[in-house]
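Hmm, how's this folded?
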Amino acid sequence: MSLFNWFRPAASVLDSTQQQRRDRLPAFTPLDERSLREQRWVVVDVETSGLNLNRDQVLSIGAVVIEDGAIDFSQQFERTLQREGHKLSPSVLIHGLGPSAIAAGSDPLEALLDFMEFVGDSPLLAFHAPFDQHMLGRALKDSLGYRLQHDFLDVADMAPLLCPQAPIREAGLDDWVDWFKLQVVERHHAAADALATAELALILFNRAQQQQIHSPLSLQQRLGQWRRRRQAPSF
């Protein structure tokens, strides 16, 4: 056993019902040439105990669905996860999830199964998606023995790609919310941040269509090209 594995938490034990639910989870569907409007998107945000990718834990998950070109308020998800030994940390000042809120939360196994059943085979959107993708992926692997393979598109990359005229770069969600003058009532709460990200994504989908980007696959490809250009050395 490696030293790294020694410090990793032991995988949770699923009962027979949980195993059956996990095994019935649908495989993800790769992005294709259907229109952006036809694609069901799950917009997700997670709050965590900190920013350490290997040590900190997912404390809450918020998600909302974009379908038929609009936010479907009948499809929303929100869970706070119980975490043994959760203590006050600087992150509590941001998301407000103290020990009492965590103690009153849902069983992590049940919450994560509920979330993946909510996602189904849909792709996911998030702001600064690599962080959410990594934290969710690790939580699902540690708790359920489940490998997250769904496509994640990063709204933080979509915004500067599709709005090159905006005088902001490496911006946060608040910057883009202010740029587009969106009316956001609450922030730094998983469900509220997912909703704000969904509102921003709808604007960006409209910009994409104006730029002849009509499908999820073409948007994914354009994002990949844009990232490679940014990472290419300049001479």
Summary: The chain has ten helices and five strands. The two ends are 46 Å apart (CA to CA).
